[in-house]
């Protein structure tokens, strides 16, 4: 479904990703863990070209792109296949919740306005915001804003949703409502890659956990295996520190 091959990324002379290989099957929830600075966010951003990889290949479904030779059209096509949920929500501040979700459907998917509206309302209801359609981001809690962000990603019907630390900007009491929504859509079989520090979520929801450190994948496997029987010393140390 998604195959990253030898993905590398440097910022100046600093190589942040070193030949990463990762395969994600359709319907899988992959959680990426690792210490701060290990390259998790950069890897996620490379999947939809918010960062341009220095080298490697990205395949989503039967679409394949070689990073060294990608044209603007290739990149545009690749971007259509994923949607990102950001740490800081990244909503349009001067648009309502409904308009934020509709935007991608009207501008990117070119749907007629009425159809975009009907679909957006259904998605906002799905994330528990049916009563907040006309609220502006400033009138919503962080948890509600992030749920709008999730509805917006779902609206695009991407092949994969990329979550970049979706709960790390939230007050602790708001984390649960956002994780509950992610859990719910994971059960529907939507393919996801999630960068998070929420270990409980990783244990319960992930099919596959990837531990990164220093720009490489140190270890990966099913959550029960990685959490209960980590093989690598770096994984053991990391898990000891955070659990
Ligand atoms: P993580 O998500 O694991 O905390 P990141 O992917 O955010 O790690 O960052 C990995 C490394 O890349 C860090 O050393 C960070 O400072 C560096 N980095 C990330 N983005 C940029 C950028 N736009 N310019 C320069 N360095 C960056």
From TrEMBL:
Highest taxon of source: Bacteria
Pfam families for this protein: ABC_tran
Mode of membrane association: Peripheral membrane protein
Keyword presence, Transport: yes
GO cellular component, one term: plasma membrane
Keywords: ATP-binding, Cell membrane, Membrane, Nucleotide-binding, Transport
Domain ABC transporter: 2-239
Main location: membrane
Name of the protein in question: ATP-binding cassette domain-containing protein
Localization per record: Cell membrane
SUPFAM superfamilies to which the protein is assigned, alphabetical: P-loop containing nucleoside triphosphate hydrolases
Source species: Paenibacillus dendrobii
GO MF term set: ABC-type amino acid transporter activity; ATP binding; ATP hydrolysis activity
CDD domains xref list: ABC_HisP_GlnQ
Family annotation (Gene3D superfamilies): P-loop containing nucleotide triphosphate hydrolases
SMART domains given in the database record: AAA
């Amino acid at each position: 479904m998604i195959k990253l091959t030898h993905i590398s990324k440097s910022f100046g002379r600093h190589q942040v990703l070193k030949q990463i290989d990762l395969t994600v099957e359709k319907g899988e929830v992959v959680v990426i863990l690792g210490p701060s600075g290990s390259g998790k966010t950069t890897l996620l951003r490379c999947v939809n070209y918010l960062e341009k990889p220095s080298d490697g290949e990205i395949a989503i479904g039967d679409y394949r792109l070689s990073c060294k030779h990608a044209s603007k059209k290739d990149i545009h096509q690749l971007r259509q296949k994923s949607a990102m949920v950001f740490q800081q929500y990244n909503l349009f501040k001067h648009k309502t919740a409904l308009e934020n979700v509709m935007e991608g459907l009207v501008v990117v998917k070119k749907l007629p306005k009425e159809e975009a509206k009907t679909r957006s309302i259904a998605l906002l209801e799905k994330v528990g915001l049916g009563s907040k359609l006309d609220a502006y981001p400033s009138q919503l809690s962080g948890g509600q804003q992030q749920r709008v962000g999730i509805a917006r990603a779902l609206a695009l019907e991407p092949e994969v949703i990329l979550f970049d630390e979706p709960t790390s900007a939230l007050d602790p009491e708001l984390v649960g409502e956002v994780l509950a929504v992610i859990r719910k859509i994971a059960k529907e079989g939507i393919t996801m890659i999630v960068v998070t520090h929420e270990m409980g979520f990783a244990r319960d929801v992930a099919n596959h956990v990837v531990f990164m450190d220093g720009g490489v994948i140190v270890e990966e496997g099913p959550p029960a295996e990685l959490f209960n029987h980590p093989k690598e010393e770096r994984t053991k140390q990391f898990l000891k520190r955070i659990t």
